Amino acid sequence: MSELTLTVMRLGFLAVLWLFVIVAVQVIRSDLFGTRVTQRGGGRARPAPERERPQASGGRQQSRQSPRQRRGAPTKLVVVEGSLAGTTVALQGQTITLGRAHDSTIVLDDDYASSRHARIYPDQSGQWIVEDMGSTNGTYLDRSRLTAPQPVPLGAAIRIGKTVIELRK
Amino acid sequence: MSVVSNTTTIGSIGAPSRRNTELLMLAFAVVIPVFAYINVGLAIDGTVPAGVLGMGLGMALLAAVAHIVVRRFAPYADPLLLPLATLLNGLGLVLIWRLDQSERLRQLGQGTAASNQLMWSTLGVAGFVIVLIFLKDHRILQRYTYISMVVALVLLAAPAFFPAREEDFGAKIWIRIGSFSIQPGEFVKIIIAVFFAGYLMVKRDALALASRRFMGLYLPRGRDLGPILTVWALSILILVFETDLGTSLLFFGMFIVMLYVATERTSWILFGLLMSAAGAAAVATFESHVQQRIVAWLNPMAIFLPPEQRPDGLISDQAAQALFAFGSGGVLGTGLGQGHSDLIGFAAKSDFILATVGEELGLAGMMAVLMLYALIVQRGIRTGLAARDPFGKLFAVGLSGAFALQVFIVAGGVMNLIPLTGMTMPFLAQGGSSVITNWALIAILIRISDTARRPAPAPAPSPDAEPTQVVRL
């Protein structure tokens, strides 16, 4: 076997071995996050609520949602105050967990939040329900502290520590 | 309402099972050893080896069986553990086959080992399948905390009662029945992790909280020192009666790692290091086998001096030959099949297999192989972080800690960083007990990670939510 072939194979083998390592690290990288984060707005700072409201009120987003969704049902959850302000989560029938635990849908970096603080989920009829999961400092819907799971009206403020979230169309 | 600067959308990915990723990586992990096999054949004989089709198909078959079992019994498991183990096992087979071709090793009376190793790998994958099918939930093992302690002690003590043989080279770590031999210390690695995890889960609050603060360190109470003293005494006894430095270091290190993880007290690590240093130094003063290892570690090149100038106890040039192998490999290596690591002699296929990696793949290949080990350890520790139950956390960290320690002890020994101890490089080195144990270890990590990554069940409908009428005002 010629020297050249063997040299090419030797370097090729090292390259393939490292390629495996790099691909494996990429798999880990895609595995790090429990949720997918999409950056919008091209990195420019702009007031998000003003931009989102006209879109939502047009009702065009309804058509993109699943057909069984009722009219007037919220399509997204928006964090309006706190360190995560501006974050939105699309509501697609999944349970949204809130808390400091790293596997929560929304990981709250808030001294007043418990690790599994609250969750928001749809009941059988598609109505979104907020439930406090035994948090220390409580979850507030508008001004009242939650004692049992309660339906969340559109635009009602859910307050957890310094974080306020709303359901929006 | 605040003006927002970051507009991001968080969407749920659902429950990714990542099985297809695993399949792709697995295919990759089968192709690389086949490439290596062809490379060795071309370099040694100038032809593609005849067995390439059989070897490729055999590995693919084993990998496929393992993958299907994971898909069926642990669908949410980590996607990397199985491909990494497959790749390391395949590379090990190729390296052993490559050393089988060496005329020098054949003259030393070493038969072919690759086919044997292939059989052991098959048994290992069979063990992997059995563990995954029958261990439905790792928490079952928690019930056997103290039984596993007894079993581990019996297995550890067993080799001391079997007659030592000439070719064991000092370490009494084998049980021989006829021509068949097993190395119980390998299996004990998993069994004792069950005991440590179960014990520390119950006792960790006492160990972590009841302590006095002294000079910035949390010192444990005297009565809480019991377990660490026991394990320390045990590892010293192993060292004295079986003269097996590696196993002794592995168990003590594993216990320290798990103790630290369970209690978050740095003082345990300090105590552990001090105690192991003191113990090793004390034993080394009277145990000649340990002394030999230390002499060989401090003066590996002195073997080439004339006999009257050599330090006492230096009997083998394998440590020096391993260093030569690393040196001649350089950065990019000599190429598979073109090195002379067979000069190491009888342990070239087992303890010193890393020297072959270092010579024929060079520093670049060596680092890649170490990265593969590091990735397995990382996935294991990640599994421990994600696990929801304390037993699973400790168990996963303990197993991956033991794996990491073993890699460190073997690699450090071969590279002459620490005294050489007779242990096997997981998956790479020749040795049946080791391959079977490590496949079982990977199976347990996959089981824990499946439990940890399984999506939480849908929220149970609250019983009193139904009849409550909400009156909107």
Main features:
heterodimer; A: 169 residues; alpha+beta; six-stranded antiparallel β-sheet; five-stranded mixed β-sheet; B: 473 residues; mainly alpha; two-stranded antiparallel sheet; 16 helices; 5 strands; globular
Question: Can you put this structure into words, describing what you see?
Answer:
The complex is a heterodimer of chains A (169) and B (473). Chain A is of the alpha+beta class. In chain A, 26% of the residues lie in helices and 27% in strands. Chain A has three helices and twelve strands, in the order H-E-H-H-E-E-E-E-E-E-E-E-E-E-E. In chain A, the strands form two sheets. Chain A has a six-stranded antiparallel beta sheet with strand order 3-2-12-11-8-9, with no helix packed on it. A five-stranded mixed beta sheet of chain A has the order 5-4-6-7-10, with no helix packed on it. In chain A, a hairpin with a 2-residue loop joins strand 8 (140-141) and strand 9 (144-145). By secondary structure, chain B is mainly α. Chain B contains 16 helices and five strands. The longest helix of chain B has 26 residues, at 19-44. Helix content of chain B is 62%, strand content 4%. Chain B has one domain. Mean pLDDT of chain B is 83; it is low at 1-5. In chain B, helix 7 (184-209) crosses helix 16 and helix 13 packs across helix 14 (362-386). The two termini of chain B are 25 Å apart. Classes of the chains: A alpha+beta (169), B mainly alpha (473). Strand 1 of chain A pairs antiparallel with strand 1 (8-12) of chain B, so a sheet runs across the interface.
